[in-house]
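Homework-ish question, so no full write-ups if that breaks the rules, but can someone show me the predicted structure for this set?
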Amino acid sequence: MTGTRTLIRLIVRRDRVPLLVWIAISAVLPAGIASSTTALYADQAARDSFAAASMTNPAQLATRGPIYDASVGGLTAWTLGSSLALIGGLISVLVMIRHTRGEEETGRRELLSSGVIGRHAPLAAALAVVLAANLLLGLLAVPALAADGLPVGSSLLFGLSIAAGGWAFAAVAAVTAQLTASSGTARGIAIAAGGLLFALRSLADAGGIGWLAWLSPFGWVRLTRPYAGDQWWVLGLVAVFVIALAAAAFALSTRRDVAGGLVPARPGPATGALSGSFGLAARLHRGTLAGFAIGFGLMGALLGVAARGLDAQLDTPQFRELAATVGGADAHLSDVFFTFVMYVLSQLVAAAALVSALRARGEEAAGRAELLLSTPVGRLRWGLSHLMFALAGPALLLAALGAAAGLTYDGDLARVTAATLAYLPAVWTVVGIATLLFGVLPRLATAVSWTVLGLFLLVDLLAEFRLAGGFVLELSPFVHVPAMLLGDASSPVVPLLGLTVVAGALAAAGLAFLRRRDLAPSA
Amino acid sequence: MNTAVRADALVKAFGQTRALDGLDLTVKTGEVHGFLGPNGAGKTTTIRILLGQMRADGGRVGLLGGDPWKDATELHRRLAYVPGDVTLWPSLTGGEVIDLLGRVRGGLDPRRRAELLERFELDPRKKCRTYSKGNRQKVALVAAFASDVELLVLDEPTSGLDPLMETLFNECVLHEKRNGRTVLLSSHILSEVEALCDRVSIIRAGRTVESGSLADLRHLTRTSVRAELIGPAPGLAALPGVHDLAVDGDRLRCQVDGDALTPVLAELARVGVRTLTTQPPTLEELFLRHYEGATR
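A: Not a homework solution, just the prediction itself:
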């Protein structure tokens, strides 16, 4: 463990800005939601009717779980419990892998390990920083919640529950970082595990199989029931989970070499058949795309199964009312449910598409583009070969999602697939924005692209709490997608064509700038 | 056409820093040209401009009779490049990368590929993720040497190779030269340039300070003289062109300007000489002279 403190300082120094932004936003958000809940639902009757409506909406159950108590605190914990665990978990995974396997892969670890740094110090330092950051954001949320008039004890439990989500996935990432020599694979396994555990909780709450929620950290962070009976002991489950996985990670790390994986690297072919820029791009994108396609397919299948029995379950006055406002009086209730869930999932598809769209920039930053572009492969061909996968990829993912959902739901593949594919132009718009940024501001493209996607999600959240509306809402491309399953009255062609034209123009401009600028490797 | 590369008064600025500040470079067709300079002198920036990956802010540049920015794709059919810091696709094997680069350059000679792999002792079945810096460099070198191109642009190509492999690299470059190819070799390893290059250009802080054949440049420096004398030679210190004179009993060491050699030898002969060694200047000495106090 020698040198852990030095490494902690190094991590904090390198990531101080993103860590601070993450902690600040996560700490401020709960109190913000609490006060807007107070403003929106002034009395208990209003909160009760909102809670009753939400509890009958399986999309809400799937994404947020049940509402345990219709108080201001209970509603705040319900609104944010799952999403903050998801965000905190994702950031924790990214930071953990970056400072463990990522450091080994780039060879920087070797330089440090030759100094007075203990064998376990890098893992210990990364865990310490991530666990502390999560704890800090959880604790910082408490005073503001208390200032909103919420009970201090329950607020503390809520803060710790938020932190617990990040803790659990920091521990998961600590283990996956030991498994393979590639940081991309380690990240992928950790995120896939997170997706599976989230799906498990969704199925538990939306499908009425409550006990399943006890198997997932996403279940635990809600089962602590802050403001609704305060079950402190559930935090113990999280602690056991984190300690067990961390111990496993330390044990695994003693059994491998620096930069080596537990799964040994196998020799590959001595000759290659990659035909050029497109062949190479296909090779670089295929693994990620295949993984995402399987993931979205599974999610779709799960969704279809869950939706099957919904029509009877959904048939409550509140949900009828909701369905009528979004889809008209004769809308099929489970179609309304699908529409809600697809809206959320399409943004996940956009995140996957962003990974593909930013790969070209990754190649450039790493210096690999320099080698390839010294051959007769031109800028345009190179840019296009990656863009092609960023455009075709989301089509594949949305089709997999829709086809699997259609198959397990009512067997009407075409109808459901058409509804998911309607989101393609909106996803393409996100890809177009990333491509434009890649052409104009290569060094900032990755960070700004993710921020833009984050802002689109934020706009949705703010709109839900009526903190934003009008033209701000119109800025998000997802808002413009017609709800195909509900037979949106207006023609779907105009908005879809419009978004496609916008996406095409953005991407074309990005490629044009790419041809005119200097290459910008990060070194 | 007998000029492969021609750059006149190149200027390239990154923000406040002027990476290139009026750089000139001429490489004749069929020669091995050494491109020398300390780290940060602007070698890689020049090469990136020659490859059309960056555009110069000022000056003129020509490559194989074309404009490296406008005609990049066409010109790249005729050249192969080995970057100074080779990064490869971690999930591909070395063999796959060599074949990919060969194929996009218009094919590579399979016999030469096999021969180079064996001589460089490179296992092409390993994933690039597992290669050391030297092995990644070998992958790029094998792909370049096995390609059928007119011009090789090599940016500090031996920085990760061991001495045995460096010797092998030198043989490969001479082999390319015999086949009539032009080689632009950037380096700060002087022995490598001395052994291989017909002509060299020395740059410092983005500017060419010297250019010519090694013979041309030698006159600019001093010959080092060591001698064991029979008697004392008090007159030596007073002669013009004698520097760093050190006398230890009957042994003597000094540096002598090229045109001052005759009077110095006459003086030594007058006193009487037991042993005498003179050495031509090495490139190290050329370098030291140019970079003495020139750090900025």
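Now go work out the reasoning yourself. Hint: Residues 107 and 177 of chain B are 20 Å apart (CA to CA).
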